[in-house]
DNA sequence: CTAACTGCAAACCTTTTGCATTGAC
DNA sequence: GTCAATGCAAAAGGTTTGCAGTTAG
């Protein structure tokens, strides 16, 4: 599997990232150098980043930013509902990945052979959420979909029944 | 949150567990004491167990069974497609939970307030899998659904919009 | 008999925490 | 000025691994 997750958007759309820092300020939370840097890293990322990579990129902006701060900041952003945490089927160990929370929920479809990740959104997901709400009576707050399989470019082994 | 996950089956159905050990033997893999014990623990479990709990229960059968063996055995079972690994939205830290793979995929719907877990299967899931296959061209091998929200018995905070 | 499996202990890796210092508002 | 945020280092928590002894087939 490749070292980085190239993400392809199933329908070619890439929604503009909301300005994280403005939303933090609006929430009455202090705007600091590290938070600014980490927000910028997330906004400029074209793929899912793990903490190590976020730290590396944030340190290009300010080398004194510490790993612990990255963890705390991501926890903060997550608590505010600004980012989502993924683990991508643990295909790359225990590390977690982060992405800015898009307006709509989407599923991650992961090729277990080549590591390619597709994101699926739209009507399929909306209909599913609706069905879950109706069946369970839950008020759904977050959905995590991680789907593994073989992409059209990869040789799939014969089905073990 | 309660210390153990009582699982409620949305439609009252609890499918009979396949006999893990027979499937292991059929796969030409050695049947040993620890594997027998761990398989039995999984088959008798009414809820999702983490490694610590599986180890504890397996040790009731044979006290010499070691944690490392439990990890290795679960990895083996997982590789054979006999069990699934969950993380239940990380609501209980980084530990992973295991369950026997049922014939059909199901979603875990988790109340983030009281920890209750509902399992949803059936037509809703089948239709979703079908839609994903068609949209992506992937051959879907496994799906992990972890949905968080408030169950009907728990007070939901007002929506932050 | 031999390769696969196990128990044990140590190593590993990611994430969290306590504390003194710094900095945003 | 005050309380929140940060850097650092150490601890925690879960999982993996090397190795020598054991065992299933």
Topology:
Two copies of one chain form a homodimer.
Chain A: E1 7-9, H1 20-26, H2 33-44, E2 49-50, H3 51-61, H4 67-79, E3 83-86, E4 97-100, E5 107-111, E6 117-120, H5 123-136, E7 139-150
Parallel strand pairs in A: 1-6, 5-7
Antiparallel strand pairs in A: 2-4, 3-4, 5-6
Helix pairs in contact in A: 2-3
The first copy, chain A, binds a DNA duplex (25 and 25 nucleotides) through helix 2 and helix 4.
Write a structural description:
2 copies of one chain form a homodimer. Chain A is α/β, with parallel strands linked by helices. In chain A, 35% of the residues lie in helices and 21% in strands. Chain A has helices at residues 20-26, 33-44, 51-61, 67-79, 123-136; strands at 7-9, 49-50, 83-86, 97-100, 107-111, 117-120, 139-150. Chain A is globular and about 50 Å long. At the A-B interface, strand 5, helix 5 and strand 7 of A face strand 5, helix 5 and strand 7 of B. Chain A binds a DNA duplex (25 and 25 nucleotides) through helix 2 and helix 4.
The percent range for helix content of chain A is 25-40%
Q: Low-confidence runs of chain A (pLDDT<50, min 5 residues)?
A: 10-18
Using the coordinates above, name the CATH class of chain A: Mainly Alpha
The total of helices of chain A stands at 5
Helix-strand category of chain A = alpha/beta
What number of structural domains do the residues of chain A give? 1
The second-level CATH architecture of chain A is Orthogonal Bundle
Oligomer: homodimer
Global mean pLDDT of chain A: 87
Distance between the termini of chain A: 26 Å
Q: Largest interface, counted with CB-CB under 8 A? A: A-B, 37 and 37 residues
Shape, per Cα inertia axes of chain A: globular
Let me know the largest β-sheet of chain A: 4 strands, mixed
Q: Quote the CATH topology of chain A.
A: Arc Repressor Mutant, subunit A
Calculate Rg of chain A over CA atoms: 17 Å
Number of strands of chain A: 7
